[in-house]
Structure formats: structure tokens, C-alpha cells
């Protein structure tokens, strides 16, 4: 592929055919703990690419603007080029992971309301948590943007909760990234088993990257099961 631009932990970015697009290629690399744990898993890239594609199409059909333009092969998409807002938004419905550790709440504890948390996108600094006043003070975003991001994140949460519930999955938490294109803010990056915690409603079985983080078995089994459940609902009408 022409025009290599940047290699991230799980994706490689190339220049697109026009000035306002990029090509994003999913890698087979799984990483955790800010890259400290890393493994190559054949097939992981295409599973996540397909999963994220289905989810982004679903969100976009429900009024969410995303960077997705078109899938070009098993692992590559043409996307709109956006100026990434360097803040990760973490949405939580159920306590787990760092939230449980930090606040001494058992994993699985249902939260009374949705928790929104922000971290600065910086590998060198280890993605530190940042609050909205610090985001404003550092000039990373504006009040107007933050208001929009919060509203959009909550809307995406409601849409995803409903989607996952339909396929017997509880949406515990997930991470979002947004970018600016002219006057618009669009959903960027990916939503997949790499960026969500997803538990089977009946059994509590994990279908996400915690399988890899915590050595709970073959991570791709979980990713495959998630994708097949999605394919059997929203994937059916879908044409690539
Ligand atoms: N997450 C992510 N990328 C990150 C940090 C978190 O995709 O750099 C996702 C993670 O998969 C989980 C949610 O955000 O679904 C909350 O993660 P948490 O803060 O609990 O972090 P962890 O326990 O993974 O360190």
C-alpha cells in the first residue's frame, strides 16, 4: 500500500487517494498494559476490522457521524481524515478494570449512573487520567466540544447497550476517540473487543481483550464469538 504515514500498536495508517482520506489497516498485534504485553495473533486484525465495521455502520444508521467511508479488503478501510482530539473517553456501565482497582469496587458492581472518564492520549505518559477542567486549561478542547463529546458518548452508549443486549452481551465499559473535520466532530478509531469489556449475560463469560490481559484462554475464541453473534443480527442485511 502506498503512502505509509504512521504505525500504531494495533493499526497502520496510510495516505488515502484524496487529501481528505486515510487508509487504516488493522494489525494482528494484541497489546495490553500500555504495550508491555504484546502478542501476534493471526486473524485478529480481520476479526476486529469486521466487528468495528458492523458496529460503525450500525451507529451511523442511528445518526452517529463516523470516520468510516468504505472497507477495501479484509483488514483495511478508507476513512475520513480527521484531526484526532488527544483524549480517550471511557464510558462505564459496570465497575471493572482500573475503575474497580482505583475505587475499591468489586468487578461486576452495577453503577447507579453512567461514568464518563477521560485520559490524555500519550504513550510516553501512559495515558494519564485527565478531568474536563484540565482539558480546558491545557487548550486540548473547548467547552462546546466537550459538551458535544459527552452527549455523543452517552448516545453511543445507549445504542451499543441495546445492540449488545440483543445478542446476549452486557456492555461493561468501552473507549471512544473522536476527531475534528472542518466544523464537525466525528467518531474515529475503532469499537471492537479490543476496546470494550463485553460479558455474556447468562454466564458472565468474557468476550473481550481481558481474555488476553488475564490469560483466560484463547482470546480469538471470544473475538470470533462476538463477531458471529453480531453477524447473525446486524450483519445479515449488510453488504461490504
Ligand atoms: N481501553 C482501551 N484503550 C485504552 C484504555 C482502555 O480500549 O488505552 C478500554 C478497555 O478495553 C476497557 C475500558 O476502556 O474496555 C476501560 O479500561 P480501564 O480503564 O478499566 O483500563 P484497564 O483496566 O484495561 O487498564
Describe the structure.
This protein is of the alpha+beta class. It has helices at residues 44-61, 97-103, 132-137, 143-166, 210-213, 219-235, and strands spanning 4-7, 11-15, 21-26, 29-32, 37-40, 68-73, 76-80, 83-84, 87-94, 110-120, 129-130, 169-176, 178-181, 184-187, 196-200. The strands form four sheets. Strands 1-2-3-7-6 form a five-stranded antiparallel beta sheet. A five-stranded antiparallel beta sheet has the order 11-10-9-12-15. Strands 8-13-14 form a three-stranded antiparallel beta sheet, covered by helices on one side. α1 (44-61) packs parallel to α6 (219-235). The longest helix is centred in the middle third of the chain and has 24 residues, at 143-166. The protein starts with a strand and ends in a 5-residue tail after the last helix. The relative contact order is 0.16. The mean pLDDT is 96. Bound molecules: uridine-5'-diphosphate. The site of uridine-5'-diphosphate has 14 residues, from β9, α2, β12 and β15. Uridine-5'-diphosphate binds next to β9, α2, β12 and β15.
Amino acid at each position: 500500500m502506498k503512502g505509509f504515514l504512521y504505525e500504531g500498536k494495533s493499526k497502520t495508517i496510510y495516505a488515502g487517494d484524496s487529501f481528505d482520506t486515510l487508509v487504516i489497516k488493522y494489525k494482528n498485534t494484541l497489546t495490553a498494559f500500555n504495550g508491555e504485553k504484546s502478542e501476534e495473533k493471526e486473524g485478529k486484525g480481520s476479526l476486529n476490522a469486521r466487528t468495528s465495521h458492523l458496529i460503525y455502520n450500525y451507529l451511523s444508521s442511528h445518526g452517529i457521524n463516523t470516520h468510516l467511508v468504505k472497507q477495501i479488503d479484509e483488514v483495511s478501510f478508507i476513512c475520513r481524515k480527521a484531526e484526532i482530539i488527544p483524549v480517550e473517553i471511557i464510558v462505564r456501565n459496570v465497575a471493572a478494570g482500573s475503575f474497580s482497582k482505583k475505587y475499591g469496587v468489586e468487578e461486576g458492581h452495577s453503577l447507579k449512573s453512567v461514568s464518563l472518564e477521560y485520559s490524555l492520549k500519550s504513550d510516553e505518559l501512559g495515558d494519564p487520567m485527565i478531568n474536563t477542567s484540565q482539558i480546558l486549561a491545557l487548550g486540548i478542547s473547548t467547552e462546546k466540544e466537550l459538551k458535544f463529546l459527552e452527549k455523543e458518548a452517552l448516545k453511543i452508549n445507549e445504542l451499543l447497550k441495546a445492540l449488545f443486549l440483543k445478542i446476549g452481551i452486557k456492555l461493561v465499559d468501552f473507549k471512544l476517540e473522536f476527531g475534528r473535520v472542518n466544523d464537525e466532530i466525528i467518531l474515529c478509531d475503532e469499537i471492537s473487543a479490543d476496546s470494550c469489556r463485553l460479558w455474556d449475560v447468562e454466564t458472565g463469560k468474557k468476550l473481550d481483550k481481558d481474555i488476553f490481559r488475564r490469560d483466560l484462554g484463547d482470546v480469538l475464541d471470544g473475538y470470533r464469538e462476538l463477531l458471529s453473534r453480531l453477524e447473525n443480527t446486524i450483519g445479515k442485511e449488510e453488504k461490504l
